[in-house]
Amino acid sequence: MAKPAGQTSARWQVLAAARRGDLSVAQIARALGLARQGVQRIADVLEGEGLIAYADNPQHQRAKLVLLTEKGAARLGTIEMAQAGWANGLGAAFSSAELDAARTVMARVMEMMEVDEIPGN
Q: Which residues form the HTH marR-type domain (predicted)?
């Protein structure tokens, strides 16, 4: 979905996190469950392309905030429109009953993961 906008899914995630405007690279990495160094590399590339900018962080002298630029917002909008079209198309391929059943199964899987109830674990 991100490919038509010239992005990868990892870059898409960082762009979406940058939209908040109040997160540092380390905070974005923690939120995404990724290594800070990897997010830093992606953020530096996105900055080089003018999609994000770094700003002073009043909470931390060295950890800059990651901000989405207008160009980045436009690119993120393109990706999100493609994702919405994909999701709508996928949803249209199933009946309401099938979607309800899938939702029920996924909710149970999430519950099991939260309490580490996975059989055989």
A: 1-111
Give the span between the Cα atoms of 31 and 28, in whole angstroms: 5
Distance CA(13)–CA(97), nearest Å, equals 31
d(CA 57, CA 69) in angstroms, rounded, equals 17
**Sign of the CA dihedral with 91 first, then 94, 95, and 99 last:** negative
Enter the pTM of the model.
Answer: 0.73
Q: Kindly list the domain boundaries of the chain, sorted by start residue.
A: 3-114
Which residue is listed with tokens 């207008």? 70
Write down the H helix ranges in the chain. 9-18, 25-32, 36-48, 70-92, 96-114
Work out the angle at residue 106's Cα, subtended by the Cα atoms of residues 103 and 107, and round it to the nearest 5 degrees. 85
Write the pLDDT tens digit of every residue in 15-70. Answer: 999 999 899 999 999 999 999 999 999 999 999 999 999 999 988 888 999 999 99
3-114 topology per CATH: Arc Repressor Mutant, subunit A (1.10.10)
